[in-house]
Write a structure and sequence with these properties.
The protein is built from 20 helices and no strands. It is an all-alpha fold. It is globular and about 65 Å long.
Length: 624
């Protein structure tokens, strides 16, 4: 063993994931004990499940602090407070152990996000399969209503909380600094902290199952969230922690892009993917704190007898809805914008044409980011609140289709008469165009108050939402995986398995959610455990299709395991003949990113000169 390497004992008892888990358990026990001492026997803080909300909330909080201390996040401030040199994690640490501790390497953090979010994505997908199994037939089949609603809420909350950070956490952290010629991110500790907060939040959410679950759906409306069993505490703490994680993640990326670009990389030459990351991050920094505050206020109502959202005591349930959707609707575009950035970054590569309308695309992203803060009350059209404001929110919601249309125009004009190479990433990008078109058209019915009165709270809204989010973000997320994983790992994914994955996923996705648009328009409410027999065929069709959709994810997982651990086929230096800067370094990149200063040219300049033939790449004209 190298003399400078820490011993096995030092690695085991040092600041890493194992130590963090131990201190999290100790902190949770200590927090529960403190909660029992604080509220005393004279105050009744017991929820309907018989649990003490004060001690449970303190258990989560102190456990989270213990987890972060165990990972080493207290080392730097503690060293500075006592006058010692700052304690820095080793940036040159190699081996698998670096993925289980605090790290200042943005590339390691990107891979941590990819793996960690993948685990929770699998759990959320499993809950979706359980939900569709229940809905195969009318009547209560497997789950009682409260357990079914807990499955629905857990699925939606995991997907919305985790997938919001999927592109930014994985590719924003890993790829964006490389694209702008930076050698690191602006705030490495904050970058790592955002990841570990997100993972801790996911575990906290899953503990709701041990405390009676929660039956409010992923929106957690008050006063239901204030009167429910203690499982709702895990939901509240999850979203509060996710909001903090998202704020730190977005802040680090904004500062990195603003201050650490290569000197010659002006705003007008920024890669369009980086623009997608920048606009998403800026929106996230402004919106996510509102989510954290809203969840903490509900926790205070549940534990400290405040009355922010109790109407009988002078509070307002409308206040919670406004706070939640002030974050919740910009969040839809936090999911759409990075997907659009991936789309417009990859289409020129596989069309061998320059990106059409670069400035128009940037204007579209900036316009979406701005207008997304002015549309949130269309979620409250049926609430009876402020009817005089409905025309404004109808107009603003319709207006956001204009910058969104800019994205579509640029995408379609880029592929028009291009030399299309139907590689796996390109297939997922083309699917985005179709899926998001369906999501946009169905969204018109939800943006106008008269039609929303009919569609609100139905499976139509749920299917529209999945077309927008899963059909948009998740498809482009897979496009980015197939495109950038060779850069991130130095290994290439199997093309045949990739195409099997795509076609199964694309067909099954549409076969799952298009029938739900129909059944929703026929009047089937969402979040119900049973339904009339006249809707059985459409629900059964949707359920069987969802199982095929789930199987497509297993095909991807098999491809990932086979390609990364069995076949291990080395990736070419620049398999796609891309002109962007991340391909000017080795795969995977070294610790310092670049051996030489990268040449920052036009990242979308394709097709202006004859290009070399790439073995294995087949164009549409060649029969691909």
């Amino acid at each position: 063993m190298n003399a400078t390497e820490p011993s096995l004992l030092r690695r085991l008892v040092g600041f890493n994931l194992a130590t963090g888990i131990v201190l999290a358990v100790v902190g949770y026990i200590l927090g529960r004990w403190l909660g029992d001492q604080i509220h005393g026997a004279s105050l009744d803080y017991m929820s309907e499940s018989g649990e003490d909300d004060v001690s449970l909330a303190l258990g989560y909080f102190v456990g989270l602090i213990g987890f972060l201390v165990g990972l080493g996040f207290a080392n730097y401030p503690a060293s500075r407070l006592i006058g010692r040199p700052p304690s820095l994690p080793r940036p040159d640490a190699q081996g698998i152990g670096r993925y289980f501790r605090l790290t200042p390497d943005h590339k390691v953090v990107g891979m941590q996000y990819f793996t960690g979010i993948g685990v929770f994505f699998f759990v959320a997908g499993l809950t979706a399969m359980l939900i569709r199994t229940e809905l195969l037939q009318p009547g209560q089949n497997i789950w009682p209503p409260d357990k079914y609603l807990t499955l629905v809420g857990t699925h939606g909350t995991l997907m919305m909380g985790m997938m919001t950070s999927s592109v930014l956490g994985t590719f924003g952290n890993f790829i964006a600094p490389l694209m702008i010629g930076a050698r690191r991110s602006a705030f490495p500790r904050l970058e790592s902290l955002s990841f570990w907060l997100l993972m801790a939040a996911g575990v906290i959410l899953l503990t709701n199952l041990a405390f009676g679950g929660f039956q409010t759906g992923w929106t957690g409306y008050a006063p239901l969230s204030e009167e429910g069993v203690s499982g709702i505490d895990g939901y509240l703490f999850f979203f509060a922690t996710v909001g903090l994680s998202m704020t730190l993640l977005g802040f680090n990326l904004v500062v990195t892009i603003v201050t650490m670009r290569a000197p010659e990389l002006r705003w007008g030459r920024l890669p369009i993917f980086v623009w997608g990351i920048f606009t998403t991050s800026a929106t996230m920094v402004l919106a996510a704190p509102v989510l954290t505050v809203a969840m903490l206020l509900v926790l205070l109502d549940r534990t400290a007898q405040t009355t922010f959202f109790y109407p009988a005591a002078g509070g307002s349930a409308y206040l919670f809805q406004n706070l939640f959707w002030f974050f919740g609707h910009p969040e839809v575009y936090l999911l759409m914008l990075p997907g659009a950035g991936i789309l417009l970054q990859l289409l020129p590569v596989f069309s061998r044409k320059p990106l059409w309308g670069y400035r128009l695309a940037v204007a579209g992203m900036l316009g979406i980011s701005l207008v997304s803060f002015m549309v949130w009350q269309h979620h409250l059209f049926v609430s009876g609140l402020a009817a005089d404001l409905r025309p404004f929110y109808i107009l603003s919601t319709e207006l956001i289709s204009i910058p969104t249309g800019f994205i579509f125009i640029c995408a379609l004009a880029t592929i028009w008469r291009g030399r299309l190479r139907l590689e796996v990433p390109m297939l997922f990008c083309l699917a985005w165009i179709f899926n998001f078109m369906v999501g946009g058209i169905t969204g018109i019915y939800n943006s106008d108050a008269p039609s929303d009165t009919t569609a609100h709270g139905s499976f139509f809204v749920m299917a529209h939402f999945h077309y927008t989010i899963m059909g948009g973000l998740v498809f482009t997320f897979f496009a980015a995986i197939y495109y950038w994983l060779p850069k991130m790992t130095g290994l290439t994914l199997n093309k045949t398995l990739g195409k099997v994955h795509f076609w199964l996923m694309f067909i099954a996705f549409n076969s799952t959610f298009f029938p739900l648009l129909i059944v929703g328009f026929l009047g089937m409410p969402r979040r119900i455990v049973t339904y009339p027999e006249r809707w059985e065929f459409l629900n059964a069709w949707s359920s069987v299709s969802s199982f095929v959709l789930g199987f497509s994810m297993l095909v991807f997982l098999a491809n990932l395991v086979y390609s990364m651990f069995i076949a291990r086929i080395p990736a070419p230096a620049n398999p796609w003949h891309s002109t962007s800067a991340e391909w000017q370094t080795s795969s995977p990149p070294p610790l310092h990113n670049f051996d030489n200063d990268p040449t920052i040219g036009d990242p979308h300049d394709y097709g202006r000169a004859p290009e070399p033939h790439t073995p294995g790449l087949q164009t549409a004209a060649e029969g691909g």
